[in-house]
Design goal:
Length: 122
């Protein structure tokens, strides 16, 4: 009986972890191969929004556990970008996405470059 309870507890924790990390089936943009391997001018619409939608919106969208800190629009993400990248890197606050796998180094680099370039929308 204790084994069944332990398995049930593990499954509940695993489900909670997956629910905040977004869908793993959505592709995450990565810097292109060739041409130096980096996106030189990432924009929110072309490069950042898909990362946010696949890894953050589950919690930072309408009805999510972090809906008080929403990432549903460019303006919301742009306003929170500095705090967001600190949490994504794990340098400030809790590592995000909370309970999910860390974003890839390529995705983090892309967000960093977007911020360094002034957070262009288009």
């Amino acid at each position: 009986m204790k084994t069944i309870k332990k398995i049930g507890s593990v499954l509940v924790v695993a489900l909670a972890m997956v629910s905040c990390s977004g869908s793993d089936s959505a592709p995450i943009p990565t810097p292109p191969a060739g041409g130096g391997g980096t996106v030189t001018n990432p924009t929110y619409n072309a490069d950042i929004k898909s990362i946010i939608d696949s890894k953050c919106i589950t919690c930072h969208g309408a009805g999510g556990v972090q809906s008080g800190n929403p990432y549903q629009t460019y303006a919301q993400v742009s306003a929170s970008a500095t705090a967001m990248i600190g949490r994504i890197k794990g340098t400030t606050g809790a590592l995000m996405p909370q309970g999910g796998p860390k974003l890839s180094d390529a995705s983090i680099a892309l967000i960093d470059k977007w911020i360094a370039n002034g957070k262009p929308e288009k």
